[in-house]
Amino acid sequence: MYVKICGLSEPEHVATAVEAGADAIGFVMTRSPRRVTPERAAELAALVPEHVLTVGVFRGEDPETVRAAALVSGVRAVQLHGKHPHGDFTALKDLGRSLVRAVDAAADLRCGAFDEDLLIVDAPHAGSGQPWDWAAVRGRPSGRWMLAGGLDPANVAEAVAAAAPWGVDVSSGVETAPGVKDSALITAFLTAARRAA
Ligand SMILES: O=C(O)c1ccccc1N[C@@H]1O[C@H](COP(=O)(O)O)[C@@H](O)[C@H]1O
Question: Where does the N-(5'phosphoribosyl) anthranilate isomerase (PRAI) domain lie (predicted)?
Answer without folding.
Answer: 3-190
